[in-house]
Structures are given as structure tokens and as C-alpha cells.
């Protein structure tokens, strides 16, 4: 081999290696763009969080949050709670606005509340998020409210995670356990997606709603399992354009619009679609509940493709709920639906009324099937003056969960249409 040929071969090998390196770098860059940019991730541990389940990591989390929220630089907008560790947090608020238009909160590990109650104020929450736009919370980790130290011992109990004024919020792929009260409450926000959530608390734990919504517009909740002690999902006043799809609910109190109009307040909910959900051993199935002394409306609500498995009250509208002094449920539900700090939103759903009741109209039940644990599969108790109007039932076929029993519908002041339903407020059309 002469010298020039040798150099040529060497050059070729070199070029090959360089091109391999190039490919390799390209691959790395591709991976980087696709998933986590290592550089852009801020771990709470780098701000001193310990994660042994005992040390108070609140301060470290708040400092890490400040760095991410104020950081602003392109990559540095991901807060990481690392896998394999358990971080104990006291009540805290993650506040915006942040520099970046989107912030990732990656919960890979576990968050736990203190294992003793604390004094919880008027709208109490363990973990609050306030005024953060484009917040994404995910990571496959667990949020454990350790509610058992509160249940039946303390009257004012906190929500586990509360969101106020968080537009463009996206929460997916997380586990929520044993909140002292509601697991997630959404308030005063627009454009929210929740999916792939698993929420568990004992069936007899008090007021442990899965997800509460108030004063929100544009919420999509899908593909989640909610098994808790109260409503799986409750849609409270000031809420509109709410889609709920692919939810497995139960045990719990079902999927509920309201209560609306407690203490005589104006309350309005519209444009709600509940679709493709399964409710198992729930106290109520799909419910609309309004107070007699309130005002406002619940309208344009549809329930479609719902399967009931031994639900106690599969379909229920209660329009004449009475306000009572010291009504524990009324005050509980009112405190769920706090008013907004941001008045820019929700003009359309505010108003005042004469307190003669909350109007219920344009509600459809389509392809509701399965079984009722009680003999009364449909209960509609509507006000003599207002009535419930434009109630449509289409293919409502519920049978008794108990062999030999027949189910019936109990309806007062209901106006509507019925198609192909085994059971309805009227006879078949
Ligand atoms: C929610 O999902 C819809 C439809 O998939 C999408 O258009 C919207 O941008 C999402 N919003 C957020 C906040 O993720
Ligand atoms: C709810 O579903 C309807 C019909 O699929 C869709 O047009 C609407 O954009 C959805 N709204 C939200 C907030 O996801
Ligand atoms: C109904 O929801 C289940 C559970 O999330 C899902 O697997 C299924 O694809 C959904 N079906 C339709 C027709 O949307
Ligand atoms: C609700 O209305 C009833 C009947 O008008 C009245 O007796 C009662 O005091 C009212 N309750 C409240 C809390 O306003």
C-alpha cells in the first residue's frame, strides 16, 4: 500500500466515524426535543428538598418554583419532583404569573400532606395554584392528602389541590389519594383539560369529591377513574362548556350539576355534556340539584351513553331543595364555589334573580342503561311554578339490580318528550 492510498483509506474511516457521530448527535437532539430537555429541568432536590417523607420540603419547593416561574429562559420551565422520593409539604401556594407561557410541573415521585390537621381558613387548600397560565401537571406520581387525620374530626377541611385563575391548565397521568376534602377544585379559569387521573378515597370518607368546578368555562375531563366518598365530579355555579367523557365513577355520589342557588344566590350552569361514563355503586347517578330560594338556571345539559351499575338514584333532578339554617351540605357546597378574583371572565353567567328558584331546562338523557339499586330509577322533583322544561329521554332502559323488583319513575312538574324508553315520566310515545 503506498502512502497516498493509506491516507485515503484513513480519511474514509475518519469521515465514516464523523458521520456516525453526527447521526448519533442528531439522535440525541431528536430525543431531547421529544421528551425532557435535561438542561431545562429544575429538580426540587437542587433547591434542598430532601424527599424522605418527614422533612418539611415546603420552602425548597417554593424556591424551586420561583426559579422556574421567574426564570423565563426558553428551556428552564420544567419543575421536577423526582421519582422514588416522598416529599412532605405544608399548605402552600404556587403563584404566577410566570415569564414563560407554559410551565411543566412533573410529579414523578410522591407528595404527601402533613400527618396532622392544621388550621384551614375560609377557602382552604393544601396545594394552591394561582394565576398561572399554560400550566401542565403530569408525571405519573402520587398526590396524597392523608385525609384520614381530618375526616370526622375537623369541620373545616382543605381541598387537596386548588386552581384559581389558571387558564390553559392541563393535568394528566397522576394519582390522587385520600384528600381531606375535594381532590381537585377548579375555579375561575378557562380552557382546561384533565385526563388519565386516578382518584381514590374510602367510599364513606366525608365530602371527598373527585373534581369540583366553579366559575370555569371550557373544561374537558376524560378517561379517568374516580372512586371517592362524595361526588365524582360536581359542576357548580358559573360554569359552562364542560365535557366529561370516559369516566369510571364509584363508589361515590355520581356526577352532579349543583347544588345551585344555595342561600338565595344567583347560580348558572350551561352547556354540559356527559358522555360514555360508567357509574358503579354510586349514591346518585347523574344529578341536577338546585335550591328553592336561589335564582339562575341549569340548561343545555346532556347525558349520553351512561352505564349504571346498581346506582341508588340513577337519574335525579331535585329543584326544590330547601335552604335550612345550619344546613351543613349547603354551607359546604357554597364554600366550594368561591367567587372569582378576576372579573374579566364569566360575564355571561352572572346576574341576579328574584329568588323564586333556579330554572332547569333543555336536559337530555340518551342511551342510559344498566341497573338501579332502588326501585325509583328516575326521580324528578320539580317546582310547581317553574317546572323542569324540555326534558328529553331517549332509550332510557334501567332495570332493577334486585331480582324480582320493578323500577319506576317519580316525576313532579316535568315537561318533555320520551322516546323508546322502558321507563320515563310518561308512557311511551
Ligand atoms: C385541550 O384539548 C383540546 C382538544 O384536544 C385542545 O384543542 C386544547 O388545546 C387543549 N387545551 C389544553 C389546555 O391542553
Ligand atoms: C365539547 O364537545 C363538543 C362536541 O364534541 C365540542 O364541540 C366542544 O369543543 C367540546 N368542548 C370542550 C371544552 O372540550
Ligand atoms: C369510552 O370510555 C372508555 C374508557 O375511557 C374508552 O376506553 C372508550 O374508548 C370510550 N368509548 C368511546 C366510544 O368513546
Ligand atoms: C327560603 O324561603 C323560605 C320560604 O319563602 C323562607 O321561609 C326561608 O327563610 C328562606 N331561607 C333562606 C335561607 O333565605
UniProtKB/TrEMBL annotation:
BP terms from Gene Ontology: cell wall organization
InterPro entries registered for this protein in UniProt: Glyco_hydro_28, PbH1, Pectin_lyas_fold, Pectin_lyase_fold/virulence
Keyword line: Cell wall, Cell wall biogenesis/degradation, Glycosidase, Hydrolase, Secreted, Signal
Subcellular location: Secreted, Cell wall
Taxonomic superkingdom: Eukaryota
Coiled coil location: none
Main location: secreted
Active site: 253
Residues of the signal peptide: 1-24
GO MF term set: hydrolase activity, hydrolyzing O-glycosyl compounds
A Pfam match: Glyco_hydro_28
Keyword DNA-binding on entry: no
Family: Belongs to the glycosyl hydrolase 28 family.
Name of the protein: Polygalacturonase
Species of origin: Eruca vesicaria subsp. sativa
Amino acid at each position: 500500500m503506498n502512502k497516498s492510498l493509506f491516507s485515503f483509506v484513513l480519511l474514509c474511516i475518519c469521515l465514516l466515524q464523523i458521520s456516525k457521530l453526527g447521526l448519533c448527535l442528531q439522535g440525541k437532539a431528536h430525543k431531547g426535543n421529544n421528551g425532557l430537555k435535561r438542561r431545562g429541568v429544575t429538580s426540587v432536590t437542587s433547591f434542598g428538598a430532601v424527599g424522605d417523607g418527614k422533612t418539611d420540603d415546603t420552602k425548597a419547593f417554593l424556591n424551586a418554583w420561583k426559579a422556574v416561574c421567574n426564570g423565563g429562559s426558553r428551556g428552564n420551565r420544567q419543575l421536577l419532583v423526582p421519582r422514588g422520593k416522598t416529599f412532605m409539604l405544608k399548605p402552600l401556594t404556587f403563584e404566577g404569573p410566570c415569564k414563560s407561557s407554559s410551565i411543566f410541573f412533573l410529579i414523578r415521585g410522591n407528595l404527601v400532606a402533613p400527618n396532622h390537621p392544621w388550621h384551614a381558613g375560609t377557602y382552604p387548600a393544601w396545594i394552591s395554584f394561582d394565576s398561572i397560565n399554560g400550566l401542565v401537571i403530569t408525571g405519573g406520581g402520587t398526590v396524597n392528602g392523608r385525609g384520614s387525620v381530618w375526616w370526622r374530626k375537623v369541620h373545616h377541611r382543605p381541598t387537596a389541590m386548588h386552581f384559581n385563575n389558571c387558564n390553559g391548565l392541563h393535568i394528566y397521568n397522576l394519582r390522587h389519594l385520600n384528600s381531606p376534602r375535594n381532590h381537585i377544585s377548579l375555579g375561575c379559569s378557562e380552557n382546561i383539560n384533565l385526563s388519565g387521573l386516578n382518584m381514590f378515597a374510602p367510599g364513606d370518607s366525608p365530602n371527598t369529591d373527585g373534581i369540583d368546578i366553579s366559575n370555569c368555562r371550557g373544561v374537558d375531563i376524560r378517561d379517568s377513574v374516580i372512586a371517592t366518598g362524595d361526588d365524582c365530579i360536581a359542576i357548580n355555579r358559573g360554569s359552562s362548556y364542560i365535557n366529561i367523557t370516559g369516566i369510571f365513577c364509584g363508589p361515590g355520589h355520581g356526577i352532579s350539576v349543583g347544588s345551585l342557588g344555595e342561600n338565595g344566590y344567583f347560580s348558572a350552569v350551561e352547556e354540559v355534556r356527559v358522555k360514555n361514563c360508567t357509574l358503579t355503586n354510586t349514591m346518585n347517578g347523574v344529578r341536577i340539584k338546585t335550591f328553592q330560594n336561589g335564582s339562575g338556571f341549569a340548561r343545555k345539559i346532556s347525558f349520553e351513553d351512561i352505564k349504571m351499575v346498581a346506582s341508588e338514584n340513577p337519574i335525579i333532578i331535585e329543584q326544590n331543595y330547601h335552604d335550612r339554617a345550619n344546613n351543613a351540605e349547603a354551607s359546604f357546597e357554597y364554600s366550594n364555589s368561591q367567587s372569582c378574583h378576576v372579573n374579566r371572565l364569566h360575564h355571561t353567567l352572572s346576574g341576579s334573580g328574584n329568588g323564586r328558584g333556579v330554572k332547569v331546562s333543555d336536559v337530555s338523557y340518551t342511551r342510559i342503561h344498566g341497573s338501579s339499586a332502588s326501585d325509583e330509577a328516575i326521580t324528578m322533583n320539580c317546582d310547581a311554578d317553574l317546572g323542569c322544561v324540555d326534558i328529553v329521554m331517549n332509550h332510557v332502559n334501567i332495570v332493577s339490580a334486585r331480582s324480582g323488583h320493578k323500577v319506576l319513575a317519580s316525576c313532579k312538574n316535568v315537561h318533555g318528550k320520551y322516546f323508546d324508553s322502558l321507563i320515563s315520566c310518561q308512557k311511551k310515545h
